[in-house]
Amino acid sequence: MEFCGGKVKTEWEKKVNVPKTKKTYCKSKECKKHTLHKVTQYKKGKDSLAAQGKRRYDRKQSGYGGQTKPVFHKKAKTTKKIVLRLQCQGCKHVSQHAIKRCKHFEIGGDKKGKGTSLF
Question: Where does the record place the region Disordered (predicted)?
Fold first, then answer.
């Protein structure tokens, strides 16, 4: 258990289990109504080698002289905010929805029954 802002958090509140489909509002021009959406987790794309900042950094780093830019070390956060990618099953429109921070996240895991434990 963990004490957090006047509330005691149990172990289960840190674990998030999201269903694979969710019925929510689709704001595309075709739908504009509540439809079923497929839920996936947003992932950052691969960095492009052709981006101007990357080309500038690589040019500065080349040759003698070691590290030229400051390397950040004062990391404060231990978790990232989870971003859900919601794709409408009717019109394939994609929207994103950020949820709270959590240590453990899964999509479509086993449901926790009353008075049972998953592990």
Answer: 42-71
